[in-house]
Amino acid sequence: MDDLRIIELIQSGKDHEAFKALYAHLPKVEHLVRQNSGRGGDAKDIFQDALIIFHRRVRTEGFALTSGIGTFLFAVCRNLWREELRRRNKALTTWDLEDEADEPADLTALLAREGEYSRAEQALKSLGDKCLDVLTRFYVKHEPLSAIAKALGFAGEGAAKTRKYKCLEEARKRYRKLVPVTVAIPGQARNDKNN
Amino acid sequence: MRDELHLMELVDRYLDGSMNAEERAVFEARAKSSGDLRELIEDQRALREGVARAHARAAATKAYRSYRFGKPGPWIGGAVVVAVIGITAAVLMLKHEAPTNEAQGDAPMESFEELLGEANDALHPLVINVDTRRDTTVLSPGGIVLDIPRGCFTDSLGRPINGPVQVTLKEALTAIDITAGLSTDGDTLLETGGMFHIDARKDGRAVRIDPSKPITAMVPAQRNQQGMMLYRGEELPDGRIDWRDPQPLKKSLVPVDITTLNFYPPGYEQQLAELGQDERKAFRDSLYWSFANLIRSASQWETMDSGRG
Questions:
Q1: Which letter does DSSP use for residue A127 in this model?
Q2: pLDDT: is B179 or B98 the higher one?
Q3: Do β-strands B216-220 and B100-104 pair in parallel, antiparallel, or remain unpaired?
Q4: Among A143, B90, B178, B238, which is 20 to 30 Å from A32 by CA?
């Protein structure tokens, strides 16, 4: 499947089909990780993070494809794995500076923002499935509150609205308690927050 | 609605871009002079992205399974056949005990290695090469009886698979096995009576179960626990298993008092009735079991004599 078709799929909400096609790039990442102190499961995890980052990038207003999707995903995975190895007090053994030539210019900023969003995701998941379901229906699926109330058994639209904000409020409290985790190089991580 | 909640609603409208120019200008002026509001906007922006991220992660997890187990190949392009079943019970199940709880049906698609997570290393698998041309019954070390009907495995197009299929069963029916690394998730607490997991492959590729020929698993239970249900295990991104879709158990084997059963040969009770000796079942049983061996031997002789004739 060509890159443009994959972008079309994501933009039209057909994430499953798009992600399935994008997993064709996983073996290259598995090779990288296995060559650098990792296992197949590690590769799968960082590749999933890369997919999510790419997914958000595509949904961002003004998105333009400046490199191949495979190149982008590999560059993100390489950075994520390098960061993970740093956490484990190890280093990439097959790291090649020339590899960085194909990295997107805004990758560092992108990964810094993802650190915050990852923290938010963690806080939201800690609330439980019901809250996440309410918020997903509202913010991602854009379902009206009346439909959410009906689907989840709330007394009415008002109850659904209150539940939504209470979930969000609690998520915010937990989000702020979490220690910031960034995947970018220290010192550069937060400079691009407002980009 | 409380002020904070109203403010969060305003932030949502701001982030959605649904404010008109005047509202937006007023809101931005307010944000400019309020650090708390600016912080709220940034937090809410991150949380909204967090929601989208969680949703995308779930889609990516599903897509990974499709990618890994749905690839077309020279043999079969099937999806993995896996069933992970937990049964709630007040006590852990023991083997050799009746009644049995029968689990039956179509299997969800999951990755064998992933679904069991850490427990995968701790639990010893039972690997069976099943001849798909015959019915197969397997008794596991833990006491699970798997009934695998002939021709129950198909490829992704529903075509029957011929030749041997490797079926792997992992079971966690004892406290030691259950705590070996099987962790669960969910809003409510479950008491588990045990779990098992089946994976079936042909030449290393996962296969499907024909819905019309389900595999039946009979799981030993110590006693008939009220409220015991059958759950399907769903792997979460962090590797834990969430138990979902509770279904009532089928109990095909129900213990009964053996003295209430009737094993008499045809005409036995009728003959006793004619002799006026049919009043007490204990007597009928005693008489029958005292002479059953002779009756059976006599029948055999009769049969042999008939054969010679």
A1: T
A2: B179
A3: antiparallel
A4: B238
How many domains are there within chain A?
A: 2
**Residue A184 Ramachandran class (φ > 0 left, ψ -120 to 50 alpha, else beta):** beta
Q: The domain spanning residue A191 has which CATH number?
A: 1.10.10
Q: Which domain holds residue A155?
A: 107-195
pTM to 2 decimals? Answer: 0.50
In A, minimum Cα distance to B67 occurs at: A20
The pLDDT of B201-221, averaged and rounded, is: 83
Does the ipTM exceed 0.85? no
The single residue listed with the structure tokens 């879709």 is B245
A151 and A98 assigned to the same domain: no
Give B70→chain A minimum CA distance, Å: 10
CB contact under 8 A, A59 and B68: no
Residue-level pLDDT at B78 = 25
State which residues of chain A have pLDDT below 50: 97-98, 181-195
Provide the shortest C-alpha distance from residue A93 to chain B (in Å): 28
The distance between the two most distant Cα atoms of chain B, rounded to a whole number of Å, is 114
Rg of chain B over Cα atoms, rounded to whole angstroms, equals 31
Q: Which of B3, B13, B39, B49 to mutate to test the interface with A (most CBs of A within 10 A)?
A: B49
**One-letter amino acid identity for B232?**
R
Q: Write down which residue in A82, A105, A128 finishes a domain.
A: A105
Going by C-alpha positions, the residue among A178, A72, A142, A148 that lies closest to residue B48 is: A142
Predicted confidence (pLDDT) per residue in B227-268, tens digit: 777 877 776 666 666 777 777 777 766 777 777 777 788 888
Does residue A24 sit in the same domain as residue A93?
Answer: yes
pLDDT at res. B99: 36
